[in-house]
Design brief:
Number of helices: 4
Largest sheet: 2 strands, antiparallel
Helix content: 25-40%
Strand order of the largest sheet: 1-2
Structural class: mainly alpha
Number of strands: 2
Distance between the termini: 51 Å
Radius of gyration: 31 Å
């Protein structure tokens, strides 16, 4: 039972360390430095409870491993399917649509996020002085270092 881990922590070691006279880990406030100098009687009850739970968990480890392998071998069900079948209720924030922001407050490329139709996009045309020569290979690398031009993500 001493080696039983949850979240890569040994449960008993962590429990004893939390009650030791020397604080370990992150100290968030002066209260974290306050420790009991003696074993408190309620710790005995806690320790018996922890040992009882750990004994039970270690006794069913094989059953838990078998159950986990069956669950992992089964089909995946996503949130949309659970909602469609009525297992999950839709989140409250989806119950009523939010009002769309005025066009002048809209970020570029975000017009259709709130249900508005996107405005037509005109393709970029190369400037006349940058016309592409079909016999010349095109540049495939990004902007020069130190360039102040920022590409949208």
């Amino acid at each position: 039972m001493r080696n039983y881990e949850v979240g890569h922590r040994k449960v008993l070691d962590h429990w004893f360390t939390a009650r030791s006279s020397k604080p370990t880990g992150r100290i968030g406030s002066p209260l974290d430095r306050m420790r009991s100098e003696r074993w408190r009687s309620d710790w005995s009850t806690e320790l018996v409870d922890i040992l009882s739970v750990l004994r039970h968990l270690t006794s069913i480890e094989a059953e838990q491993a078998n159950l986990l392998s069956h669950v992992l071998a089964g089909p995946l069900i996503n949130m949309a399917e659970l909602t469609r079948r009525g297992v999950l209720e839709p989140p409250l924030h989806t119950a009523s649509p939010r009002p769309a922001a005025p066009a002048e407050e809209m970020l570029p490329g975000m017009a259709d996020v709130d249900g508005l139709e996107a405005s037509p996009v005109n393709p970029l045309q190369p400037a006349p002085e940058q016309a592409v020569d079909p016999g010349r290979p095109s540049r495939t690398h990004g902007p020069r270092r130190g360039s102040t031009r920022h590409e949208p993500r």
